[in-house]
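Title: Comparing notes on inverse folding

I've been comparing how different people in this forum approach sequence design from structure. To keep things fair, I'm posting one structure and asking everyone to reply with a full sequence. Here's the target:
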């Protein structure tokens, strides 16, 4: 709970602002007309084509509301900052539409003025090298509220776009991350993108570029440069709840007696250059190096899976760390290692705690850390991505499923394989693991991705958002009948039930493709965000108090997403909660009247935001 605004003396003759506390004067409502001093203007963003900036000036402090009609739909956005000079970022336009923007301003007494002439904004069509977005399933009543954000890449042209879609799968925001031929676009050329609590976007950039924060207009806000010797790899960009950033760094190391083949058990060993993953922790404030951990120092340096020799990184890619989880419950880290078919947990001192994954081919030194599966059904994770901790303390991950075997057992052919979201419960005391939930789609929609993907827990509904980010087979068939090497993307939201229901299914593809050399599209991860805008608690700036039927009536305008608790005090020292302000409408108007209050004595009031 945060104190946002205001202490009120019911009879105070002053209007004093100190930090977030406002001592407000008791005054009757004003009948003075509110006036817009100059015609509002709208400036489209040159970097984010479906965004722009609205500017408007009023003669007295006011708030702004905007109504947009795009020829098909009408949507509204209320802004709760209180000023005479407004510069508001407008988000949520759709491509190839003619938009009429109507502006309304409102003062602290709820007097309003609406512009007679709307503003006009014609959005351009989507770029031709973006995929076609096809909504397969949509059940809004069962879906998690909000929008879905991801970066989609056109492998054929090299173009990539940071993209946000609404619950119907329509694009409401995008920005170019690279252009045709892989040229660098305005937004970082990276694999993942997150939304910060302040509404800005956060990117891990590859190599020496580090990490970057940008606003929704494409303006750089902050850069965390890579530290010498600790370049940022774009697989992970985890902001912890204790003021740090965790990311992955890759180094190389010569490993003696390393296997030379994942298919021939009699192949000779060799001295090999091996890629080594290293989780790195830096300060969110100043990017100072705080910690780093060597994964190869904890694990068997000569253990391999079928993927180790497939795509060399800086050497033989025997680990391919691709995700980090911060576990505050016991101050540990959890790391996904795709080319070990393993998720491992270790303490901040570097002590291994457990290994989640197939138990084949681990040496005696690591046997005590292997988890024993219990219960049915159960299927190990293979080449997994993006483990996360759920509110129940379980591990939810995206299981690509490559080969579904360890060397030197027979691998499962890709056309017979499947990818899934899987959830595991780990008993650290008894070193056991059980599978508590999964979604495979194998009964009606078997998808296989040999790379990428994530599964995200959705906090309001408990649903799971699953990114099948690199689909090479649908029910055993190539998804593009023209180009057998082309991949598509399926982003699904499913219920967290024993028999999950698909409530959202969005396909990204090129159904009109005629190029046999097309390689299609991919998405690394997708995330559900609550809104295009931030909903951080901010001070309420237009609190008023007046007498109504002999009782003090508090009124203010604020973000309706939050709850506003009213407290009272006779002396500004001892406060007691007297109720919760009720919304008067859907526009953010709130009021509270204290029953039985004695208007002959001074009272102070304040509003706390939950």
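Reply #1:
Here's my take.
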């Amino acid at each position: 709970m945060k104190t946002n605004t205001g202490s009120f003396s019911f009879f105070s003759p002053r209007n004093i602002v100190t930090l977030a506390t406002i001592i407000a004067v008791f005054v009757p409502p004003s009948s003075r007309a509110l006036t817009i001093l100059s015609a509002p203007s709208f400036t489209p963003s040159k970097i984010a084509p479906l965004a722009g900036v609205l500017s408007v000036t009023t003669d007295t402090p006011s708030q702004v509301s905007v109504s947009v009609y795009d020829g098909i739909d009408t949507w509204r956005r209320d802004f709760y900052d209180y000023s005479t000079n407004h510069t508001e970022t407008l988000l949520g336009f759709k491509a190839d539409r003619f938009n009429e923007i109507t502006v309304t301003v409102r003062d602290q007494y709820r007097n309003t003025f609406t512009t007679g002439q709307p503003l006009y904004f014609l959005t351009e069509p989507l770029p031709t090298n973006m995929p076609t977005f096809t909504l397969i399933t949509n059940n809004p009543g069962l879906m998690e509220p909000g929008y879905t954000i991801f970066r989609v890449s056109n492998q054929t042209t090299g173009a990539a776009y940071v993209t946000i879609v609404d619950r119907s799968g329509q694009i409401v925001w995008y920005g170019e991350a690279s252009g045709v031929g892989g040229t660098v676009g305005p937004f970082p050329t990276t694999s993942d993108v997150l939304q910060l609590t302040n509404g800005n976007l956060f990117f891990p950039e590859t190599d020496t570029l580090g990490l970057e924060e940008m606003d929704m207009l494409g303006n750089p806000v902050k850069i965390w440069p890579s530290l010498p010797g600790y370049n940022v790899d774009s697989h992970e960009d985890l902001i912890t709840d204790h003021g740090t950033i965790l990311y992955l760094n890759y180094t190389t190391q010569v490993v003696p007696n390393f296997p030379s083949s994942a298919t021939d058990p009699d192949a000779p060993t060799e001295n090999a250059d091996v890629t080594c993953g290293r989780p790195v922790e830096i300060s969110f404030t100043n990017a100072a190096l705080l910690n780093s951990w060597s994964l190869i120092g904890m694990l068997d340096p000569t253990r391999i899976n079928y993927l180790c020799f497939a795509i060399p990184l800086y050497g033989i890619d025997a680990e391919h760390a691709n995700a980090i989880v911060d576990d505050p419950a016991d101050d540990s880290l959890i790391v996904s290692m795709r080319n070990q078919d393993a998720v491992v947990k270790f303490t901040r001192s570097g002590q291994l705690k457990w290994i989640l994954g197939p138990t084949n081919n681990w040496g005696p030194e690591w046997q005590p850390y292997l988890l024993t599966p219990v219960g049915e059904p159960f299927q190990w994770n293979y080449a997994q991505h993006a483990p996360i901790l759920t509110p129940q303390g379980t591990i939810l991950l995206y299981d690509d499923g490559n080969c579904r075997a360890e060397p030197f057992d027979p691998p499962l052919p890709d056309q017979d394989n499947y990818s899934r979201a899987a959830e595991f419960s780990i008993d650290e005391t008894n070193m056991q693991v059980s599978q508590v939930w999964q979604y495979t789609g194998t009964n009606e929609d078997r998808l296989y991705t040999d790379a990428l993907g994530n599964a995200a827990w959705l906090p309001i509904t408990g649903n799971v958002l699953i990114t099948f980010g690199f689909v090479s087979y649908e029910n055993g068939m190539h998804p593009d009948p023209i180009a057998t090497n082309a991949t598509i993307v399926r982003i699904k939201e499913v219920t967290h039930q024993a028999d999950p229901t698909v409530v959202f299914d969005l396909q990204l593809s090129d159904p009109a493709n005629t190029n046999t050399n097309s390689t299609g599209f991919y998405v690394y991860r997708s995330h559900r965000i609550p809104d295009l805008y931030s909903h951080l608690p901010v001070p309420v700036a237009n609190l008023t108090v007046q007498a109504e039927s002999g009782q003090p009536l508090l009124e203010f305008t604020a973000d309706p997403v939050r709850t506003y608790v009213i407290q009272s005090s006779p002396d500004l020292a001892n406060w007691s909660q007297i109720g919760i302000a009720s919304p008067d409408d859907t526009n953010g108007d709130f009021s509270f009247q204290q029953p039985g209050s004695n208007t002959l004595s001074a009272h102070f009031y304040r509003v706390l935001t939950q």
